[in-house]
Amino acid sequence: MTTTDPVLINVPEQIVTERLVVAAPRIGLGQAINAAICESLEQLKPWMPWAQVAPSVEESEAVMRNQHAKFVLRSDLVYQIYAKTPEGQPGRLLGGTGLHRLDWAVRRFEIGYWIRTSAQGQGYVAEAVTALTQMAFAELQARRVEIRMDDTNARSRAVAERCGFEFEGLLRRDTLDVSGVPRDTRVYSRIAPL
Questions:
Q1: Which residues contact 13 (CB under 8 A, 6 or more apart)?
Q2: pLDDT digits (tens, 9 = 90+) for 6-31
Q3: Which of 17, 26, 82, 171 could bridge to 90 as Cys pair (CB 3.0-4.6 Å)?
Q4: Locate the N-acetyltransferase domain: which residues (predicted)?
């Protein structure tokens, strides 16, 4: 991978695991993503700035189209998490994940994730994060993959630890929570061997 233009980097649009299909955004998914967000709004509100008010289906479709464009431009690599059908195809939309804060020169990426309320506690997030991490190292030649979360987000912390990420430190008052109050951020990482 010698190109310096991220648009020319081949990024898998789909990752298949034992139970999941992790797929790049597609135009026309506004209604499905809207249903998952609206079902989970109360659980997402404390952590996700974009989940403070229930979006309309039209707003959700606009988000999907913007995510699709950013994926093509390699400026943000959002994926949706689907239950895998018996035929190996994407089934019910379960949530989202992705590689964010991309630094293509360093090959540093940050993983984010969320899961709809009815799919919590079944290991789907850890399965998706493990697959995305493996893809980042194998396909994108990542040198560093991070997971960051609010210090009080115990569920997110458990995912990072379950997926083999190492706690690096606490960034004190480095960002604001959804209500504008300074918060501490936990930083976890996995790095490629030298």
A1: 23, 24, 71
A2: 999 999 999 999 999 999 999 999 99
A3: 82
A4: 31-188
Closest CA to 76 of 30, 137, 125, 24: 24
Task: Report if residue 28 sits inside a domain.
Answer: yes
Please tell me the distance from the alpha carbon of residue 106 to that of residue 144, in angstroms, as a whole number.
Answer: 8
CB–CB of 189/165 below 8 Å?
A: yes
With a CB cutoff of 8 Å and minimum separation 6, the contacts of 181 are none
Amino acid at 181: V
Q: Is residue 129 part of a domain?
A: yes
How far apart, in Å, do the first and last CA atoms of the chain sit? 17
pLDDT at position 4:
72
The answer to the question of residue 99 being in a domain is yes
Which residue type is seen at 184?
Answer: D
CB 110 within 8 A of CB 14: no
pTM of structure? 0.93
Query: Domain with 187 in it: what CATH number?
Result: 3.40.630.30
Q: Which residues pair with 90 in a beta bridge?
A: 84
The answer to whether 123 and 178 are in contact (CB under 8 A) is: no
Provide the domain count of the chain.
1
Domain, as residue range, for 92: 9-191
Query: From residue 50, how far is each of 23, 53, 54, 67, 185 by CA, in Å?
Result: 21, 8, 9, 14, 18
CB 188 within 8 A of CB 165: yes
